[in-house]
Design a protein that fits this description.
The protein is α/β, with parallel strands linked by helices. It has helices at residues 38-44, 85-88, 104-121, 128-131, 135-138, 174-181; strands at 10-11, 19-20, 27-32, 56-58, 64-66, 72-73, 89-94, 132-134. Bound molecules: zinc ion. The site of zinc ion (ZN) has 4 residues, from loops.
Length: 182
Amino acid sequence: MRIPNLRIDRKLTTHVLEAPLAAPRRGVMLHYDDSSRDDWAVEWFTDPRCTNGYTWLVLDSGAVIELADPQMRTPHAGPCTTPYANSAYYGISAATNGLVPATIAQLESIAMICAALLHYHGWPADSLDERLVGHDAQAVWTSRYTPNRLLWGHTGRKVDPTGVRSDRQPIIDVAAMRNRLR
Ligand SMILES: [Zn+2]
């Protein structure tokens, strides 16, 4: 499937697992992939050991790599406050890590993808608070991830795309991205 007005620079044949949607799309989830170099980041998704995956990976240059068919779900979200989050949200990842903020070009391309998706689905701009989410705001602990039952069902399992910088500058500022799209 092709989303109108969504510019793709490269389509990659990957090991990203694709499966039919288990729930209708309701928004977009932002991530970073915890990579340190773009070429390694791209290589990972063609590695047979790769079990995670997004629909789009956005490189430092702003180049958009399509890793999976947008009409399929991919393992990008895991257990979240929203059920069937892998299906409910498209997954977009900036190729960066918890310390290096997304580049201007990366943010521009992410905004371009989000705008195309909003338009394609007819999602109104005033629904962006629920439509555009960060992985960290959604990902919850379960028994599969920790034996500590007190954490089960609570967020804190993921730190992307906000990151872990000591100056608290977000790697991707989700609120700023919503404002940009409004
Ligand atoms: Zn993530």
